[in-house]
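User: hey, got a sec? need Tetratricopeptide repeat protein 29 folded
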Amino acid sequence: MFRAASRALSEALVLEARAALREADHGRASALCREAVQRAHDARSPALELGAERELGSCMLAAGQLEDAMATFRSFLALAKANDSAKDIVTAHLKLALCYHKRSDMAGTLGALRDARRAAEELKLPELLARAHLHLGEHFLNTSRPQYATTHLHQACELASETNKAEADRARALAGVAGGLELWPAVLAALVESGPDQPDALRRGRLLDLVAWKDRRAPFWPKDLTVSKAVLQSQSTVS
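Assistant: Yep! Here you go:
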């Protein structure tokens, strides 16, 4: 009877915490979640305890309490591993990545996202694997490394195409941005390389080609345009 009552109370507290969070009452939401964690523990329900821990971390994150949120998500991760909760393991890594991102810790963000990707691959969770690839692509775009973003975004689009259309569309759009940014330095370098040694008319023509490519997505590369190997030398892929 006690466990059943504790279980019901934990579920009710989480619902109340979500309502408080929607009203931006972060302090009350966190307090309710802490109580929900304790009640779930009393009920000896790992699933409920995991859910309450996750909600508590989200409340702290929304309140800007990054250190507390990270500590809670680490506890959430440990609990998920102890209970072999595959989805929660990946979710914990993704939540930690978000905390690192909000702290402007780019190395920590990348490490947590890689952990999420590896866990999703090992645990065979394609929807969360797509999300990990999407966030990796976003991370590389945010840190001005589009050459590493494109592959992750294409993989996210492919994986999410059957499970989450919104995420697939987002990944597809960002992949287009990353591909353009990846090509852009080579395009500019090619124009600079060919410009000084070419007649003015040809240089103007190539600039007009560039404008047409930007405005109408017309084919840009002229057949006779050559670029030095140094400009187009590929960089090793960061996974």
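Quick note: The chain is about 80% helix and 0% strand. Let me know if you need anything else on Tetratricopeptide repeat protein 29.
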